[in-house]
Amino acid sequence: MADQVVRVDVGVCTFKRPSVVATLASLGAQRLPPHVRMRVVVADNEPTPAARGAVLATAAAHGIDLDYVHAPARNISLARNAVLDALAGDYLAFIDDDQTAAPDWIANLVEAAERQGVAAVLGPVTALYPPETPPWIAAGDFHSFRPVKVGGRILKGYSCNVLIRTEMIRRAGLRFDPALGRMGGEDDDFFYRLTDAGGVIGEAPAARVFEPVPAARASLTWLLRRAFRSGQSHGRRQLRRALPGRLVQLLLAGAKSAACFIGAAATAVFPVRRRRWLVRGALHAGAVARIAGIKELELY
Predict the structure, then answer these.
(1) Strands 91-95, 161-165: pairing kind
(2) Angle 224-183-233 (CA atoms, 0-180°, nearest 5)?
């Protein structure tokens, strides 16, 4: 499609983060292929349109084609749905308002999606650790992440580094669930429904975004909560099964969690390995909790 114009809308949902200015500046610095056109949609989730002035000024300073949407709900799903409502391009990319994109981010996402012919592609998120970060967190790089494959397939994604075909969004009627917009897990639900509808998710390893790690997230407690909550999203999916299937998944997740905690005990003298086992154990424990009917954590 190098001889055809490809239109990419980039969604940025923001809530009380001045860092959105740096995010937009990185989008303004994109090195786009000649056939790619980029438009940015900022959905402001604050009760008042407080970010409007800074967003529009930054867009003007960097020559960005931008639409500002006020989505005053304090609910990330509604902000992302506001981006979907404004969608006009061939593709939709998402990046978070505390991230910056490499200059070839869009180019690499589009190249990967076109070459693979898939419904969506995911790029890696590289964590940036400040000097005061506990050494074991930086050494283990606990906050960076990449797509996860299960049985050779990517079954779910994330909306902080992704490119999705508009046609797939519309064909499958995809939306972000407002009921999950404050507790988390709305990304998992969205992309599970994409793959359930037959969409294939590919990888774009060269499409890089960078995310600073704030002090509030540089702790074992935060990592355990995030992993537990992610496990609950997986557990919610298992609730669709009949009772015998749910019981099997409950036992399987419980066994995996126990094995991880045993692994943590066995590696107690190794700070990174021990905590990695603990985080993995929390993930499976979250699945157990949700299948057993325990209410999901509210992260936001």
Answers:
(1) antiparallel
(2) 65
Largest Cα–Cα distance in the chain?
Answer: 59
Amino acid at 176: F
54, 24 in Cβ contact below 8 A? no
d(CA 21, CA 19): 5
- pLDDT of 296: 77
The confidence score (pLDDT) of residue 238 equals: 86
Same domain, 194 and 286: no
Q: Cα dihedral sign for 275, 276, 278, 279? A: positive
- Helices (H) and strands (E) in the chain — how many of each? 10, 12
3 state DSSP class of 232: helix
Q: How many domains does the chain have?
A: 2
Domain boundary (213, 248, 276) is at 213
Reduce the DSSP state of residue 7 to 3 states and report it.
strand
Cα(23)–Cα(47) distance, integer angstroms = 21
Task: Kindly give the parts of the chain with pLDDT less than 70.
Answer: 1-3, 298-300
pLDDT on residue 2: 53
1 in a structural domain: no
CA dist list (Å): 140 to 97, 101, 134, 273, 282:
24, 23, 10, 8, 17
- Strand 120-122 vs strand 36-44: parallel, antiparallel, or unpaired? unpaired
pTM to 2 decimals?
Answer: 0.92
Of 150, 184, 213, the domain-final residue = 213
Q: Angle 246-252-254 (CA atoms, 0-180°, nearest 5)? A: 100
Contact 193, 109 (CB under 8 A): no
SS3 60: helix
Q: Residue 127 sits in a domain of what CATH number?
A: 3.90.550.10
Alpha carbon distance 165, 192 (integer Å): 15
Predicted local confidence at residue 139, as pLDDT: 96
Rounded Cα distance between 121 and 274, Å, is 32
Contact 23, 95 (CB under 8 A): yes
Domain residues for 201? 6-213
